[in-house]
Amino acid sequence: ELEIEHQQRAAIVGDNGQGKTTLLRTLVDSLKPVAGRIKWGYGCEIGVYAQHVYTNLPQDKTVLEYLEYKAKPGTTTQECLAVAGSLLFRDGHTKKPVRVLSGGERARLCMAGLLLGTYNILVLDEPGNHLDVETVESLADALLTYKGTVLFTSHDRHFVRRVATNIIEVRDGRVRNYAGSYDDYLYYVNKEIEDGERERASGRMSATPASKLNSGKADKGASGKDQHQQRKTLRNLEKTISRLDEEKKALTAEMMQTADAKKAMDLHSRIAALSSELEEAEQKWCELQQELGEW
């Protein structure tokens, strides 16, 4: 049973393919539960941010007009401007029409609209994707002052550290709620690995589980020939990671500048595919480092 309290900011984490986004989609009734049921508390209003939402913004409204439209009744223009400013829409930028906004600006505008609305629960799928460092920091600040409940996924560990009050891990078809900060969660995970609980829970005793987090050296029993091959593979992986990272940065920069919604969606799809490749390559690199006893 998973229970989330009012005003918690829960980060949903887990290895690639474990079902983080599936869990979010199930929570907002985009997917039906395979088993069990979901029960929200009385008076819950849920605002959802997914990475495609900014393609559906009204093209002819200005930034300020859109925020005033999305804001709860009684919100003043000054309050709208304050939230806009917190997400880096300042001065003349609030008068820009949506049609000329870049992908990054549209993402920020969607987030500002959610924060100003009547929602007391925000469900956010990778809210920091495609945003620059300054914008991600501003988003974290805004969520820290938000009075409602937040459930979110993110690959940005710094963002999770800043925002999360608890961690929900998706693993082997189950979810577990860890109280406390992200660093508390890492401590619990390492302790579970040391105690062998993780291997028993998943029904396997793996010497180098993918989720092992700096918890010790791996078996050094590989032959010299095997180690040579592993180091060669490691070097190739490092080249692949560097190439994928550069490609992702270039596409992200292009997406943040384009005002064409169709092009932004195409770029988003390409970035998502690169992100999956990059995460897979990084995971293989970590596993090889552990096998070689170097991590």
Name a few traits of the molecule.
6 strands; 6-stranded mixed β-sheet; 49% helix; 10 helices; alpha/beta; Rossmann fold; 295 residues
List the helices and strands and how they pair.
Elements: E1 9-13, H1 20-27, E2 46-49, H2 63-70, H3 77-86, H4 103-116, E3 121-125, H5 133-145, E4 149-153, H6 157-163, E5 166-171, E6 174-179, H7 182-195, H8 197-202, H9 224-257, H10 261-291
Parallel strand pairs: 1-4, 1-5, 2-3, 3-4
Antiparallel strand pairs: 5-6
Helix pairs in contact: 2-3, 2-4, 9-10
Task: Describe the protein's architecture and organization.
This protein has 295 residues and is of the alpha/beta class. It folds into two domains: 172 residues, P-loop containing nucleotide triphosphate hydrolases (Rossmann fold), CATH 3.40.50.300; 68 residues. The chain is built from ten helices and six strands, in the order βαβαααβαβαββαααα. It has a six-stranded mixed beta sheet with strand order 2-3-4-1-5-6, sandwiched between helices. Strand 3, helix 5 and strand 4 form a beta-alpha-beta unit. Helix 2 crosses helix 3. The longest helix is centred in the C-terminal third of the chain and has 34 residues. It is globular, with a radius of gyration of 21 Å. The two termini are 35 Å apart.
